[in-house]
Amino acid sequence: MTKKDKARKTRKIFRARKKIFGTPERPRLSVFRSLNHIYAQIIDDVAGKTLVAASSKSVELADDIKNAKGKVSKSKLVGTLIAKKAVEANIKSVVFDRGLSQYHGRVKAVAEAAREGGLEL
Q1: 41-75 b/e with 16+ CB inside 10 Å = b?
Q2: Alpha carbon distance, N-terminus to C-terminus of the chain
Q3: Helix crossing, 71-88 with 106-116: angle to 10°?
Q4: What is the model's pLDDT at position 101?
Q5: Among 11, 55, 80, 114, which is most buried by a count of CB atoms within 10 Å?
Q6: What is the rounded distance in angstroms from the CA atom of residue 54 to the CA atom of residue 65?
Q7: pTM for this structure?
Q8: Class of domain 21-116
């Protein structure tokens, strides 16, 4: 990636972050998608702390991930796990932060599974 492309990517991230901000009442659900894995975390931006986190590498999902076919089905499992952990932590509504990814495929699967699990996005 060239220096110019990195700068463009950084500007795009900051532009998105200006609009999306997590508060203690309504924290931010951040989703990061890599080539093989997906990560989701609920963040309180005021305190700068991660409240709840889940990923396709989570120990809780190890057996289910092995049996899951495809990345989208693994993403659904991550969405249900993050929703379950959030409900246990008394978090009911969040602001959805898709990062640089489009709301499509794996990112959409995490969001829909989190909604089904009881989170309000």
Answers
A1: bbbbbeeeeebbebbbebeebeebbeebeebeebb
A2: 33
A3: 40
A4: 85
A5: 114
A6: 13
A7: 0.88
A8: alpha beta
d(CA 79, CA 97): 13
Distances (CA, A) of 54 to 7, 78, 83, 85, 108: 29, 6, 9, 8, 16
Measured CA to CA, the distance from residue 78 to residue 76 in angstroms comes to 5
d(CA 121, CA 109): 13
How far is Cα 64 from Cα 48, in angstroms, rounded to an integer? Answer: 31
Distance (Å, whole) CA 47 – CA 27: 10
How do the domains of the chain map onto residue ranges? 21-116
Contact assessment for residue 24 and residue 1, using Cβ atoms and an 8 Å cutoff:
no
pLDDT along the chain (121 residues), means of 10: 92 84 90 95 93 95 92 96 96 91 94 96 90
Return contacts of 15-19, CB within 8 angstroms, 24+ apart. 16/97, 16/99, 16/100
